[in-house]
From TrEMBL:
It is an enzyme of class 1 (oxidoreductase). The keyword Oxidoreductase applies. Its EC number is 1.5.1.20. Keywords: Oxidoreductase. This is Methylenetetrahydrofolate reductase 1. The keyword Oxidoreductase applies.
């Protein structure tokens, strides 16, 4: 890659399945993302390069072949979320939409320089948000997937380091190497969660 459109093409090809991996993911997308594949393609075409995502679920059977886990006879719930890189040219408009969205939309955003913005960190500190949970007979609610500030910032360090690792694959001073290091300096990592899991499409309105 030597320009932004090259990065967009790489991410779109990954979501569509013609590219098997990315510097941030060694494997193709999980089967559950088929439910939101069209939206993911659109989002990436707009320049929001997605690293992770999941569809909203409102009580899928725990033995569902795609979404199920845990003991039989239970139900699975998920909040829709999307994590993506956003170039600094798109970030101000994107942040404005997030800040003016419904309070049920929470987000974390940070760049490689360490700047951090969030509406999920309040006066009481940073509360973890459950992204996926299960309800099973005879058991307490199980919450296997959480997001909080500490985990997001730890992943941020790794995510931005991957830009550098990608750049290192090219000769020093080459157009590709210089461009990829520039991307690490000009992108924000953003995690967006829609806490209303019964309205699965609202989160996509953030990406215009």
């Amino acid at each position: 890659p030597t320009e932004i459109s090259d990065i967009t093409e790489i991410f779109v090809n990954y979501v569509e399945g013609s590219l098997a991996s990315l510097p941030w993911s060694d494997e193709p997308l999980l089967a559950e993302t088929q439910k939101i594949k069209e939206e993911l393609v659109r989002v990436n075409q707009l320049g929001f390069w997605t690293l992770a995502s999941q569809p909203a679920l409102d009580g899928a059977a725990s033995d569902d072949v795609t979404y199920g886990w845990g003991p039989r006879g239970g139900y699975i719930y998920q909040k829709a979320f999307v994590e993506c890189f956003v170039h600094q040219s798109l970030f101000p408009g994107f942040l404005s939409r997030l800040q003016n969205a419904s309070p049920r939309i929470t987000y974390y955003a940070s760049n490689g320089a360490g700047d951090f913005i969030s509406n999920a960190v309040g006066a009481q500190g940073d509360a973890a948000t459950a992204l996926t949970w299960g309800v099973f007979p005879g058991r307490a609610v199980v919450q296997p997937t959480l997001i909080d500030k500490m985990n997001f910032l730890a992943w941020r360090t790794e995510a931005f380091h991957s830009w550098a690792e990608w750049a290192d694959m090219f000769p020093r001073g080459s157009p590709q190497e210089r461009f990829l290091r520039e991307m690490a300096e000009k992108c924000w990592l953003v995690n967006v969660v829609d806490n209303e899991y019964r309205n699965p499409d609202t989160i996509w309105n953030m990406f215009q």
